[in-house]
Automatic annotation (TrEMBL):
Signal peptide (UniProt feature, chain positions): none
Record's keyword terms, sorted: Peroxisome biogenesis
Subunit comment: Interacts with PEX19.
GO molecular-function term, one example from the UniProt record: protein-macromolecule adaptor activity
Superkingdom as given in the UniProt entry: Eukaryota
Name of the protein in its database record: Peroxisomal biogenesis factor 3
Function: Involved in peroxisome biosynthesis and integrity. Assembles membrane vesicles before the matrix proteins are translocated. As a docking factor for PEX19, is necessary for the import of peroxisomal membrane proteins in the peroxisomes.
GO biological process: protein import into peroxisome membrane
A UniProt-annotated Pfam family: Peroxin-3
GO cellular component: peroxisomal membrane
Length: 350
């Protein structure tokens, strides 16, 4: 029996060798595939965790943006009221001065101007802070990333403070626009909306400067002054300011700011419409929403309405005006793109 088995093995020796080699090869290949599959799983898990961490950081950063906007609205309102002070004029009118008509003319101009400025400034504040805090947020993410090759932070605390202080330009020089607008007529709601559109066209079609001029100082010496010298941190601050300037000059920024302005002025007109509604007791067909354009108010009543809109526009308590700007989908998408750009390692961007 053993002799027969040995003869069978000798006759089929090559087949046994080939089969053994094949089985061994399949085994080794299986082990290799198992190892590679395990590596892929680990890499995908690591990437998933990193992406989840990045997403969490981004969402946290957006909440910070929203809270920062709300916290800065009182300062924005104060800056506008200081430069366009209508309260002193209303106080003068109560004393029945001889130049009453002249004061009314000034009050008209200031009331409309500061409301328009409030809309522009609030929209600019929302979008500018989205740019600044997402640039900072992107760099902070890289600074805290696992496996970061350098210990030098991209955005140390001192740089963050110097960089974010540039917002003072918007609260100062950047706020002085449309102060020479003169409004001499009495309007219905439709005429009032048309006048606001005319003011917007005049402001936004200006060939002297773009709207981004009001957000950051564009003079290199001013940027250097803001950065307070030539230390390493100051150079990094100037770098951040220049990167911000590039973002503000981009078509995407222009588009998003335009979206915010359209939404802002639309909300302003919605707020004003509430004051142009017929009395509730009036059951005539004129109560229909489309007829609001036919309702007129005396100028003496329109001016206080316009003058008081700043309290709604620049309210630190979340109002429909501010909420619609903060929650706008295009603003969110723009913020995500800024964060994506500055939270991606430079070697991956090349």
């Amino acid at each position: 029996m053993f002799s027969s088995a040995w003869n069978f093995i000798k006759r089929h020796k090559k087949k046994f060798i080939f089969t053994g080699a094949l089985i061994g090869g399949v085994y080794l290949l299986g082990k290799y595939a198992q190892k590679k599959f395990s590596e892929i799983q680990e890499r995908e898990a690591t990437e998933y965790i990193a992406q989840a961490r990045r997403q969490f950081h981004f969402e946290s950063n957006q909440r910070t943006c929203n809270m920062t906007v709300l916290s800065m609205l009182p300062a924005l309102k104060e800056a506008i009221v200081t430069q366009l002070n209508s309260e002193s004029l209303t106080t003068l009118l109560k004393s029945k001065p001889a130049n009453k008509l002249e004061i009314w003319e000034d009050l008209k101009i200031i009331s409309f101007t500061r409301t328009v400025v409030a809309v522009y400034s609030t929209c600019m504040l929302v979008v500018l802070l989205r740019v600044q805090l997402n640039i900072i947020g992107g760099y902070l993410y890289l600074d805290n990333s696992v496996g970061k090759s350098t210990t030098t932070p991209l955005a140390p605390p001192d740089v963050q403070q110097q960089y974010l202080s540039s917002i003072q330009h918007l609260l100062g020089d950047g706020i002085a626009l449309t102060q020479n607008v003169s409004l001499k007529e009495t309007w219905s709601l439709l005429e009032l909306e048309q006048q606001l559109n005319w003011i917007r066209a005049e402001v936004e079609a200006s060939s002297r400067r773009s709207l981004s001029w009001y957000l950051l100082a564009d003079d290199e010496n001013v940027l250097a002054d803001q950065a307070c010298g030539l230390t390493e941190n100051d150079i990094m601050t100037i770098k951040l300011l220049n990167e911000t300037r590039d973002m503000l000059d981009s078509p995407d920024f222009t588009t998003v700011l335009k979206v915010c302005l359209n939404r802002g002025f639309s909300r302003l007109c919605d707020n004003l419409a509430e004051f142009f509604r017929p009395p509730p007791s009036d059951s005539a067909p004129s109560c229909a929403p489309d007829s609001l354009s036919a309702v007129s108010l005396p100028l003496a009543k329109i001016i206080p309405i316009i003058n008081g809109q700043i309290n709604t526009i620049c309210s630190e308590t979340p109002s429909h005006f501010v909420q619609e700007l903060l929650m706008n989908d295009q603003v969110k998408e723009f913020a995500a793109n800024v964060y994506e750009t500055f939270s991606t390692p430079q070697e991956l961007q090349k």
